[in-house]
Amino acid sequence: MSDTTKPIAIVTGASTGIGRELAKEAARHGYDLLIAADEPEIEEAATELRGLGVKVEAVQADLSTTDGVDKLLAAAGGRTVEALMANAGRGLGKGFLDQDWNEVRGVVDTNITGTIYLIHKVGQAMRARNAGKILITGSIAGFMPGSFQAVYNGTKSFLNSFSWAIHNELKDTGVTVTCLMPGPTETEFFERGHLMDTEVGQAKKDDPAMVAKTGFEAMLRGDGDVVAGWKNKLQSAVANVLPAAVTAEMHRGMAEPGSGKQ
Fold first, then answer.
1. Is 152 annotated in the active site?
2. What is the pTM of this model?
3. What is d(CA 156, CA 215) in angstroms, rounded to the nearest whole number?
4. What is residue 109's DSSP assignment?
5. Environment class of residue 35 by beta-carbon count within 10 Å: exposed (0-12), middle (13-18) or buried (19+)?
6. Which domain of life does the UniProt lineage start with (predicted)?
7. Burial label, 3 (beta-carbon count in 10 A; 0-12, 13-18, 19+)
8. Of the residues 152, 205, 213, 233, which is catalytic?
9. pLDDT values of the chain reduced to their tens digit, one per residue, 262 residues
């Protein structure tokens, strides 16, 4: 990108799934893009997005690390970030004590540490100029104890809560914070998270384009949160009134290894 004055939108986790669809939404709305992911497919995404008539810069970086986030921020080159879509995330199935610790740590560092570090840096600049939009990808998983996805659900519970907290802190400014809370969505999440032998891994899922459009439009309005899909809205409402022991057992039925129909 040669124009250092035009505002940009940053989208993380943009190589596939919801993140790639969020980047498409931003492109259709005229945003130039800085997109990032920890895999080389981010370059393929950039090529596709350029076909929508906007400038796109791609950064391959490990956003679970401070160095990776700093690499992304350096690529912004001091340009004004008009919108930040903090979407990068990892999932992980199986029982907590059966999981590899490095994978566990990677989920926490990607979903929480790297995400809030990026929001802290970009959000400070937004507050200083009293303008900007932040979209955080949480999940309806954050509403229930995630048996056989304990760490993942815990990180999403954090993000759901964190998003509303800073939404409130910034309510008297020109900066808005929106939490997108999808349900199971047709992405590579389930294969990467070792969840393909589960009921939720085998079930029909939401279209990532629909989820991204729902979240993007909520961000433009400045909504505090949005749940994508009526089934997910119903599930999240039920989860909010049932005892934790009940929802943990319900989640077990969906995520326990071997629960999927073969």
1. yes
2. 0.90
3. 16
4. I
5. buried
6. Bacteria
7. exposed
8. 152
9. 445 556 799 999 999 999 999 999 999 999 999 999 999 999 999 999 999 999 999 999 999 999 999 999 999 998 999 999 999 999 999 999 999 999 999 999 999 999 999 999 999 999 999 999 999 999 999 999 999 999 999 999 999 999 999 999 999 999 999 999 998 877 777 777 667 677 766 777 778 999 999 999 999 999 999 998 667 766 777 677 777 788 888 888 878 888 776 4
**Spatial CB neighbours of 134, under 8 Å, sequence gap ≥ 6:** 83, 84, 85, 86, 119, 122, 123, 126, 166, 175, 176, 177, 178, 219
Catalytic residue among 24, 94, 133, 156: 156
Tokens found for residue 53 = 């008539």
CA distances from 75 to 1, 15, 58, 79, 113 (A): 10, 17, 9, 9, 20
Only one residue has tokens 């400038």, namely 55
* Residue 117 annotated in active site: no
